[in-house]
Structures are given as C-alpha cells and as structure tokens.
Amino acid sequence: MAIAGTAEQSLPAAGTYEIDPVASTVRFDTRAVFGLLPVRGTFTISHGRIVVAESPEGSSVDVTMNASSFESGNQQRDDHVRSSDYLDVARHPEIGFRSQSLDRSAQDASLQGELTVCGVTQPVLVTITSVTCEDKRITAGGTATIDRFAFGVTKAKGMTGRRLKITLEVVANR
Prior knowledge:
The chain has one helix spanning 75-82; strands at residues 15-19, 25-32, 37-52, 60-71, 94-103, 109-117, 120-134, 137-147, 163-173. The protein is mainly β. Strands 1, 2, 3, 4, 5, 6, 7, 8 and 9 form a 9-stranded antiparallel sheet that branches.
C-alpha cells in the first residue's frame, strides 16, 4: 500500500515500531571527479523508531546511523570520507534524523525533519515513496537529496559530489 494518495488508504496501526537495522538500508548516490564518475554506497542504521499516531500527521521518526559505516566499495575512499576531511567520525560518530511533520497532501507524502551530520543540524525533506503494512511490520521507502556543503562538509569542491541522493528502505516492527 502506498501512503501517498487519499485518506481512504489503510495506514499502519497506531503504536511504536522499532527499526530493524539488519533489514533496513540507507543507500547514497553521488558523483566524483568533476561529476564524471558515479559513486554509490551505504550507511547502516544503529537504531531508530517510528511512532504511528492515531492522526497520521502526528506520527514521527527518529533514527541514528553509524557514521563510520560509510561504505562505497573503495577502501581508500571510505577511509578518507571517514576522516576529519569529511565525516570526522572520531568526533561525530553518529548521523541522526528526527522528523518534525508528515504531509500527506502532496502527490507523494513527505516527512519534514532535521538531519544532523558532523554536529550540524539542517532541515531535510524525505519523500515517502511507499509504505507496506504486514501485521506488526512496516516497510517504508523514501528518497531525499542532501547538500553536504550545508553541513560544513566542503573538502574537495569539484572533485567530490556536493549533493547526495539518499534512498531509504526502512523495516520496523511493533
């Protein structure tokens, strides 16, 4: 069932759902070397929760990712991104997202929230692409575009992509 659309569609049952870090994925796509090369990879979720309210607009999401879990398939690049040049995982081991509001009036539902990277918090909009409900389990998909410069991650301008497309598939159980 897609959450986008009319109010007649069934929604997950109200309650608290714990995010399953093993079953959930956070993928990113960006470009490197002056935009010529695609770079894809993942982060892992440490923990999180989805609270579905009786009124869907009152629902919330709170999730924490492990910054050192950045993985692109190139060990040298991964180590560099984890360094103080980029994510500075020694000082900022977590990346956090906390929702502030759910808007179901658009073509696709969206979740407005705050993302914290390297100790800097900025607003971010997550477009919810799907929500599937099975008994006490929710699987939700979404996308967001992140401007790394907004978080003070500005090393290698031109060589490293400024924007990252984030694709989420989050599984949570009640």
